């Protein structure tokens, strides 16, 4: 069931998800009622791709708990602290919903349809591709330091020489490989592009859009309509 839900979100039109994320972030800044904010955050949590790693879930829960406790201590008001936590979640969650449920190829097609400059589209595509590579490289460097008897969690002074410097050199090496690959394949930013799978509006997009409208209407009702 979780896998099918994720696959359905992956098939939704990228433009629709972009527009929804922008609307949600803008709506977050206007909301003042806790009930409306709770409906917004609850909907975002339902849209998150599953399953979520237990480590990330635990880390997020602890971080939010610390944020709530600090806010309550500074503000002296638990309801305001909880509302601040909900607002933080509503600002942080829309982007992962877009990123984790949109294949890179669909995102690039969407950006190309927007008539963005070719260099900007290529830069965004490469940044997108480098993010998982950076995560893998960080994990590899962390394990390499552990094999050498260096625990970076207890020795933050070793982060620069044992983590940051090797990561920078590795990313530069990856950038050189990408440059050589583009040149050997005759890439030209001014050449016309074609797509074997053009983006089209489907019934799934209509259903997702209607559901989003109902969700936003419910939030608006609890905020302004009662």
UniProtKB/TrEMBL annotation:
Keyword Transferase: no
Residue ranges the record marks as coiled coil: none
Transmembrane segments: 12-30, 57-75, 81-102
Localization terms from the record: Membrane
CDD domains: EcfT (cd16914)
Superkingdom field: Bacteria
Pfam family, one: CbiQ
Topology within the bilayer: Multi-pass membrane protein
Keyword terms: Membrane, Transmembrane, Transmembrane helix
PANTHER family according to UniProt: PROTEIN ABCI12, CHLOROPLASTIC
Name of the protein in question: Energy-coupling factor transporter transmembrane component T family protein
Organism: Almyronema epifaneia S1
